Fold this protein.
Amino acid sequence: MQIGLIINPIAGIGGSVGLKGSDGAEIQQQALALGAQPQSQRRAALALEALLPLRDSFELVTPPGDMGETVARECGFSPHPLPLPRGGMGESPAPFGRGARGEGETTTAADTIFSAQWMASRPVDLLLFAGGDGTARDISSVVGTKIPVLGIPAGVKIHSAVFATHPRAAGEIAAAFIRGEKLSIREAEVIDLDEETYRAGTVITRLYGYLRVPNLAQRLQNKKAPTPAGEAVRAEAIAAAVTESMQPGWLYILGPGTTTRAIADKLGFPKTLVGVDVYTREDVVALDVSAARLLELLADRPAKIIVTPIGGQGFIFGRGNQQISPAVIQKVGRENIIVVSLSEKLNALKGAPLLVDTGDPSVDEMLAGYLPVIVGYKDKVVYRILA
Amino acid sequence: MKAVAPKPMPRRFHQASWDEPVIFELSQPGARGVLVPEVEAGIAAEVGDVAAKLPDSLRRKAAPALPELSQIHVLRHYARLSQENLGVDLNIDIGQGTCTMKYSPKVNDQLARSPKMADLHPLQDESTVQGILEVMWQLEQCLKEISGMARVSLQPGAGSAAIYANVAMVRAYHESRGEGKQRDEVITTIFSHPSNAACAKVAGYKVITIYPDADGYPDLEAFKAAVSERTAALFITNPEDTGIFNYRIQEFVNAVHAVGGLAVYDQANANGILGITRARDAGFDLCHFNLHKTFSTPHGCGGPAAGASGVSPALVPFLPKPTVEFDGTRYSLKGDLPQSVGKIRPWYGVVQNILKAYSWIMSLGADGLREVAEIAVLNNNYLLKKVLEIRGASMPYAKGKRRIEQVRYSWEQLTEETGIHSEEMEIRMVDFGMHYWTSHHPYVVPEPMTLEPTESYSQADLDEYVAALRQVANEAYTEPDTIRTAPHNSTVHQTNHEPFDNPDEWAVTWRAYKKKTA
């Protein structure tokens, strides 16, 4: 068995000095100048510790230097190094990995992308990476759903759902994977926001795709109560509740997400991975629509919007589904918004409300308050929405 | 001067371990515990072949595959199993939060075992069972006083059976008013006992769940947004399974009444409010108690427990039947109740438990019941302070507020700092002759631990429990492998739970086990 490890050495460097992310060489230098300490080595080490007792049962594959090899050796592994293209690769002018390049030189996104691509083509059985949303996005761009991937949270922005809750938890899931325990693999969202505008005070996020993430949802639990049904079964139960309520003549606007995709599956219709799609009970109306197209479609027909929280912070509007613009929401009306969610997404909020950030404060205000959230068949939660 | 230095807590413990097989595997063909005497000639001549009257369809083709053992082997088997156990009669059993594992006085068991009780038959004529009918009637009067309700049915065979009886009465009530179809939703809270949602689902209701608000209390505004003309009832536990008392409970009741719905109080565990608050005084229409929690009858471990369903005057016609009536001189069973939801359990209910609960209440009196609640709350808040002094422990929701009779703690910080999970801590506690329960699933509180000390335990008991807990938490930081490899001093193993989710692997009977492993 081969486990890949990619560390983004500068992940999280901006956060500790209040820079809202670490994208771009200038910001990284600024962060270092402000005294920022890289977080990802230490956090990767926390995850690797859990794998140490199993080190003879798998091969650790990792790029040299700060991108994995250094910390792996420090933790007691003898990693298999990635074969490097001599004299740099692609557009990256520098040699590979900071350690390999000599002190002071930095790695770039191209290094992450090259390493991930190499691991996917090998393929390794599981790719572990330490980073944030930017790293997840780089990996997703070349790996897609080819191999299972698991994020060790080390970045400033952790909106994507591909990360374990804690570095140790990532190590634990990877250990279970190596031991051959039965794990469910879920498709988890990769979302990222544009850091440049974020630093300027505007949030623009996009859903970039999905990674296949192993899941330890049914970790050893005592059996006073039965184990809840698997995620897929409950998503199907939600889909059954929604499809049974669909009325003829109405348009149904499905936002992105795996739970909304289960609804399209139930109807037997295709669903774009990261797009907003429109259906009637009987047919596909339009796939991957823009805000403008949505408004056209809404001109002469009543519609309902079906959305699910995107990412780990509980946004139902304004993260990864901006196509459902404030104008679209206003036209459809609050009473025609259907929120669906697996209950663990609500539980993970630990009492925090669901969030909306449409870009139009008056629409956010209109959405604020309480909305029913469908969490199963004949199962709802009435949950707080905060603008 | 003591001759021996005092021993530090926690005490050293090692459980008996007998490596005992299941009783079917102990079977020896031909072994017998009792030799049944032959039928005497005179009787045989008089009665003839009794079995001849059995129809063919009832006749076994082969003898039942019961284990064959001598008396001494049966006794040894069960004595050994009793040593491989934990519980209130052996040690400090405060870890099974929400279950109210109080001490059950043995005198009540003796009463239930007496021939006067044990030899009763449910088909006896009423005139010959006036005693147990009186006990049932008297216990109903006690529970009426405790809850403020108009009538109480003692028929349900368990807490969840009582909740189901209440769901059935809610449904019958709305149907009687022509609103049965319209009212298809039941509302509950995420920290109410999950049987409320489950029983409502079984009865066909849609369930709406309310989460806590920013302060950690059931979200009143969410509840107000959830109630409508479709609401059949609110089913709510208070204090919730977190030990948090919903101080706006009256407003919840008012909000559901305002839309024509009913308010149902889950008082399975009423240990923190006994003699202090009453369901009916807060406007509730129905409530239920588990006699095996608050009222000290032993937990059934899957056997017969007992529940009690209380109702307001408007719900009396829908009570399970029969009811026990008293005309001033004679006790009787009344089955002619046309609007009743019917039978919830065969015969009278679990009368042994009814007797034990009655005896427990009468031995305490009204002042004693209130004292039970006061000590239970005091014990819990003492324990709470001690537990929160342990590194890595916390008490999420309603931060800084006290709890009533139990607490759902979190080891989230300890897990993040050490990688040790609550379930692993739980197994290590067994090495000290104790245990704890995490929480219902799915875990809403991360890395949960639910403790409920009840009134039965002394300060020294609580200190000893905390000493064990502190030691286990310290080990998580200093020698986590001791926890990961636990238990070391117990018969309990680290069990693999996976087969429980696979119907091909689990079996609830020996016959099914043999079939599946054949």
User: Anything to note?
Assistant: The two ends of chain B are 66 Å apart (CA to CA). DSSP finds 15 helices and eleven strands in chain B. Chain B has two domains: 113-362, 366-499. The longest helix of chain B spans residues 351-388.
